Amino acid sequence: MPRFKTIGILTSGGDCPGMNCSIRAVVRTALGEGIKVKGIIGGYAGIFKEDIIEMSASSVGNILQRGGTILRSSRCLQFHEKSKRKKAYQILKKHGIEALVVMGGNGTFAGAYVFYQEHKIPIVGIPGTIDNDIQGTEYSIGFDTAIQTAMEAVDKIRDTAFSHDRNFLVEVMGRKSPAIALKVGVCSGAENIIFNPEEEDLAHIVQDIKRGIKRGKKSSIIIVAEGEKPGLSYAIQGELKEKFGIESKVCVLGHIQRGGSPTAFDRFMASKMGFTAVKALVEKKYPTVTVYKNGRVTLAPLNKCLETKKRPNKDALEIVRALSI
Ligand code: F6P
């Protein structure tokens, strides 16, 4: 089978730090293999708009350190429709795009898989989401930078919490995945983590706060995983006040966690995964996802990476509770 002449690349879903590193790696690895690369602007939606540009080695210069994605991103509802996907396939063909590298999270991969099944277009995915919730890989690009950003924010909140003897509920992103909350909790020395309010025993958390007060603590930080939608901390704040008479302040970190210059770890992983994605296409290993497993970047079948990762183990929660006595 002849080699691909032209491949496309897009970034889709919530952006994350490190996407630019992968774009750079994909473009330059492909050009080195004698393959042209077309960048699709704005995720799957860019296919319908035919917002497609040819990428050169210099078009990805000086982007390694930049957050966000130079290709832009979106959550594209049109791509959920079979007839629209057929149209998308025809547009890609018109632009000479024979294969795709898609970078994003669960929604991006679900779209990629159904697109592959319907049109057999060669596809390789690169996991890119701060949530680190993709099944089949221990790591998704952007997670480390998001942790760093959230941890630094909590450090700052702790300064003012200490000065004013206050309790703070700091809400972090991750949708249903508590991965950010768990890691930030350990790294910022939080007093507690709340990631499943229905199951959570607020009375127990209050007990811990009171135990801290007894030994002279005058402030505490509780990390809240946002869950389905942001703002959950306000409900917890109300409950703490009404049921237990405990005052607290809320700080929702929000999209700050999605921006910023990628950490060294994210730059390295994103570059390695971008390189691996192109090699996978060259070696006809698709549909696959570049995954991180047992300390190595390797490939996994795309259909093994479609589900949201099962709840990460609660070791971190145990550590936070053990270290905050
Ligand atoms: O999936 C990444 C993520 O940042 C989640 O952590 C968050 O819940 C969601 O995206 C926010 O999405 P949007 O930017 O569309 O509001």
Can you give keywords for this protein?
alpha/beta; 7-stranded mixed β-sheet; 325 residues; 4-stranded parallel β-sheet; 2 domains; Rossmann fold; 18% strand; 10 helices; binds 6-O-phosphono-beta-D-fructofuranose
Structure, explained:
This protein has 325 residues and is of the alpha/beta class. The chain is 40% helix and 18% strand. The protein folds into two domains: 6-142 and 262-304, Rossmann fold, CATH 3.40.50.450; 144-258, Rossmann fold (3-Layer(aba) Sandwich), CATH 3.40.50. It has helices at 19-32, 45-48, 82-94, 106-119, 143-164, 179-187, 202-214, 232-244, 264-282, 315-323; strands at residues 6-11, 36-40, 52-55, 99-104, 123-127, 167-172, 192-194, 220-225, 249-252, 288-293, 296-301. The strands form two sheets. The protein has a seven-stranded mixed sheet with strand order 3-2-1-4-5-10-11, sandwiched between helices. It has a four-stranded parallel sheet with strand order 7-8-6-9, with helices on both faces. α1 (19-32) links the parallel β1 (6-11) and β2 (36-40). It binds 6-O-phosphono-beta-D-fructofuranose.
Please identify the structural class as seen in this structure.
Answer: alpha/beta
Number of helices: 10
- Residue-averaged pLDDT: 95
Overall form: elongated
Span between N and C termini? 63 Å
Q: How many separate structural domains?
A: 2
Fraction of residues in β-strands:
15-25%
CATH hierarchy class name of the largest domain: Alpha Beta
In this entry the ligands are: 6-O-phosphono-beta-D-fructofuranose
User: Into which percent range does the helicity of residues fall?
Assistant: 40-55%
